[in-house]
Design goal:
The complex is a heterodimer of chains A (293) and B (412). Chain A is an all-alpha fold. Chain A is built from 12 helices and no strands. In chain A, 32% of the residues are buried. Chain B is an alpha+beta fold. Chain B folds into 2 domains: 179 residues, Periplasmic binding protein-like II (D-Maltodextrin-Binding Protein, domain 2), CATH 3.40.190.10; 191 residues, Periplasmic binding protein-like II (D-Maltodextrin-Binding Protein, domain 2). Chain B has 18 helices and 14 strands. The termini of chain B are far apart. Classes of the chains: A mainly alpha (293), B alpha+beta (412). Chains A and B meet through helix 11 of A and helix 3, helix 11 and helix 17 of B.
Chain lengths: 293, 412
């Protein structure tokens, strides 16, 4: 069998999948690009070509800039908190102790919950009149009286980030836990004999094994966080006073509530572009770390 | 290869459909409702069951979404070729739906009995530029609910007749230590906030649009927002109102934590149900108050109608279903959570029994119903106004500046 035939056969075997992918990803993407240069409405008119108008309007509007900033903060804060909590949880669950397997199983629970269920749950927890968080903080004396968490611009985004962390840190923890199984015990033991402290052991023995897998977790979570929609839609619908209106919420509003399919498409494509840039940058970083180790 | 698989699948599906088809041909219609305020899901299911019993050749597939999803779901289904035959729509959407041809014009189907029997104000719910796009179904406005026990303890003999009086009475209740924040509203960043705002706009004699241009940033429109901000800042209003929807207001009122609350008809019988309300038997209801020299009562038109989508393949069956749901017999039977659209129902003792107070408030309130602006760009206008309301309440902007920005962003 020649090399040529192997290549041809590989392409032939992949052909059905490629056709399906072009049909469900390629075509909608091309159509969205076409839409973004028109003033089409969601229903009614097909719209006519307007050139770069939509992009100019979107990029120069204060709505976009504000939403971009909100999305940025949401992504940075939630992902970094998830990484730290996830690694700490993984280190804990890597220790031998009684009930470890029960805890490992329990940890998956938040991650397995549908986002909408999680959002509804946290909305109840944050309820200003009878929420569990208020009850807890008042009972332990950290708060004098019940307060509004999702109704104040100062706390709404932070409250959303906490809810998102609770749901998503288990993914990071799982990936880190799996990576920890690869850390050779003899090296850890040897470093202890050499007098390395807890921090040095983590930094120079454990972390190099974790770096690659954590990079993958970081990529997945950042892209997800940048696209965040459902948890916010259920909990605040972008309020109060638009303080939690992320880019995806803005796209939804533009394309579906206001039915401006054209400018909605241009906004969606800008978001896609941002996420793609992030993904490519991360991919390069991963290759670099993989090459280094 | 793919094609033969498709053909095989298609054949199998058709065969299965043929085998499972009932003895008589059944038409299936899909209907979209909301699960929030007005008729409960259980009521709608019971009404529909009566309909299918009377029309065994039609089956109705019901779907319920929260109010916040109703508009987008309808439009999205339409954008992708349809799916629903009958949709519930809010009074603020006919302009947009008519412009984008989402609903069928049913003006010709309306009988003289309907024309003369239905309250004139109810028709505005389904009209745009002289055409009718459905039948009104939920006739609703926001009423002022009050807790009789708390008012009595505060020594207040009668509920307020003006908004200023409402503030005075709330202050008495607050000062006497009966409740720290006596008034509850639904001021979340949602349509609910605009319904409360519109009620106040009508009280202050304001208007939204004049000659196609926004005018809510001055006069009555500005007075209305100023009232909200003052009530919020003075601590008379529950500060959590800014994240409440109607159901949150109902829970607070039912727990006896509000002396006054603005809400739709449905709260009356729910708050009077001892099963899950602590204030059953103490619920008072009056039309929303007026402003001295300007109005005696105020009300927002919060009615909703049932229409046939333009993509429906069974418009006749859909119309049959709509006429059944809106018929006087059906509406009189389920008059506890939503009041009938039929004028003579209000004098029917079977309808008013046990809710005389609500019927009395309805007679005054429904007659004063003030419309939210009729424009195809309503969603943009409303979104801009919601932002103005929230920014003003949070003190990020002065009401005047916030409304001015809203006028600029309203798309008008």
């Amino acid at each position: 069998m020649t090399n040529n035939w192997i290549t041809t056969r590989a392409w032939l075997l992949m052909l059905p999948l490629l056709v399906v992918m072009i049909a469900v990803i390629g075509w909608p993407l091309i159509d969205t690009i076409r839409l973004s240069f028109t003033d089409a409405k969601l229903v009614g008119t097909q719209g006519s070509f307007v050139g770069l108008d939509n992009y100019v309007k979107v990029l120069s509007g204060s709505n976009f800039q504000r939403s971009l900033l909100t999305t940025f903060w949401f992504a940075v804060l939630s992902v970094s908190a998830e990484m730290v909590i996830g690694v700490l949880a993984a280190l804990l669950l890597n220790q031998r102790f009684y009930g470890r397997s029960v805890l490992r199983a329990l940890m998956i629970l938040p991650w397995a919950l549908p986002t909408v269920v999680n959002a509804t749950l946290w909305r109840l927890i944050y309820n200003p009149e009878y929420g569990a968080l208020n009850a807890l903080l008042v009972q332990i004396g950290m708060l004098d009286s019940y307060r509004s968490w999702l109704g104040e611009p100062g706390t709404a985004l932070a409250s959303l980030i906490l809810a998102d962390c609770w749901k998503n840190f288990p993914l990071v923890a799982l990936i880190a836990l799996a990576a920890l199984q690869a850390v050779p015990r003899d090296i850890t033991a040897a470093s202890m004999v050499d007098g390395a402290g807890v921090w040095s052991r983590f930094r120079f023995v454990t972390l190099p094994y974790l770096a690659g897998p954590l990079m993958v977790a970081l990529v997945l979570r950042t892209i997800e966080a940048f696209k965040v929609f459902d948890i916010i839609w259920v909990m605040t619908r972008g309020g109060p006073a638009n303080s939690t209106r992320t880019l995806s919420i803005l796209v939804y509003q533009e394309a579906f509530s206001f039915q401006r399919a054209g400018s909605g498409a241009s906004l969606a494509l800008i978001v896609t572009l941002l996420v793609t840039v992030l993904a490519v940058a991360y991919a390069a970083l991963i290759r670099k770390t993989a090459g280094a180790s | 290869m793919l094609k033969s698989v498709t053909t095989a699948l298609l054949g199998a599906t058709l065969l299965a459909a043929a085998l499972s088809a009932p003895a008589h041909a059944q038409t299936k219609i899909n209907a979209l409702f909301m699960a929030q305020a007005a008729y409960s899901e259980a009521d709608v299911r019971a009404m529909t069951e009566s309909f299918t019993k009377a029309n065994p050749d039609i089956s109705v597939n019901l779907e319920f979404v929260p109010y916040e999803g109703l508009h987008d779901k309808t439009v999205l289904a339409q954008g992708s070729g349809g799916g629903y035959d009958v949709v519930l729509f809010d009074v603020i959407w006919p302009a947009e739906y008519a412009t984008n041809k989402v609903l069928l014009d049913v003006s010709d189907k309306i009988t003289p009995e309907m024309k003369s029997g239905v309250l004139p104000g109810a028709w505005t719910t389904v009209e745009y530029e002289g055409k009718r796009y459905g039948l009104p179904w939920i006739l609703d406005t926001k009423y002022l609910f009050y807790n009789k026990e708390i008012l009595q303890k505060a020594g207040i003999a009668n509920p307020p007749k003006t908004w200023a009086e409402l503030s005075e009475q709330a202050k008495i209740i607050k000062d006497k230590g009966l409740l720290s924040t006596p008034i509850a509203w639904s001021w979340s960043q949602a349509e609910a906030a605009i319904c409360d705002y519109t009620t106040l706009v009508s009280a202050y004699g304001g208007s939204f649009i004049k000659d196609g241009k926004p005018v809510f940033q001055t006069g009555g429109g500005l007075d209305a927002l100023n009232y909200m901000v003052e009530s919020y800042k003075s601590g008379l209003t529950n500060p959590n109102s800014k994240e409440f929807l109607e159901e949150d207001v109902r829970r607070v009122f039912q727990n006896g934590e509000a002396a006054f609350a603005l809400n739709w008809t449905y709260m009356y019988n729910m708050a009077n149900n001892p099963k899950d309300s602590k204030v059953a038997g103490k619920v008072g209801v009056v039309p929303a108050p007026g402003v001295e020299g300007k109005s005696t009562v105020s009300a927002v038109n919060g009615s909703m109608g049932l229409g046939i989508t333009s993509t429906s393949k069974q418009p006749n069956e859909a119309w049959k279903y709509i006429t059944f749901m809106t018929s006087q017999a059906t509406q009189n039977q389920y008059a506890k959570l939503s009041l009938p659209i039929w004028a003579s129902s209000y004098d029917d003792p079977a309808v008013s029994k046990g809710q005389e107070e609500l019927i009395a408030a309805a007679k005054a309130g429904l007659a004063a119903m003030y419309p939210r602006p009729t424009t195809p760009k309503y969603q943009e206008l409303s979104t801009a106004l919601q932002q103005a309301v929230q920014e003003s309440l949070l003190g990020q902007e002065a009401p005047e500046a916030a409304l001015k920005t809203a006028a600029e962003n309203s798309g008008l």
